[in-house]
Amino acid sequence: MLIKSKDPSEPKSYEITPESGYLSRREWLKRAGYLGVGAAAFTHLGAQAKTDANWQAMLRSKLASSNQWPSSAKDELTPYEDIIKYNNFYEFGTGKDDPSRNSKDFKVDPWRVEIEGAVKRPGKYTLEDILKPHPLEDRVYRFRCVEAWSMVVPWVGFPLADLIKRFEPTSKAKYVRFETLVDPDRFPAQRFGRSTLDWPYVEGLTMAEAMHPLSLMVVGIYGKPLLPQNGAPLRLMLPWKYGFKSIKSIVKIQFVEQQPRTTWQRMASQEYGFYANVNPQVDHPRWSQKRERRLPNSLFNPNWVETQKFNGYEDQVASLYKDIDLSKNF
Amino acid sequence: MKKNTIVKLRWGLHILLALPFFWVVYLVVSGDIGTDPAEKIVREFGFDGACILWLSLAMTPLRKLTGNAIWIAFRRPLGLWSFFYLSLHLCSFLVFWAGLDFQVITEELSERPYIYIGVAAWVLLVPLAVTSTQRSRRRLGKKWNQLHRLVYLSGALAVLHIVWVSKLDYVQPLIFGFLFIAFMLLRTEKIKNILRPAKS
Question: Which residue of A has its CA nearest to B35?
Answer without folding.
Answer: A296
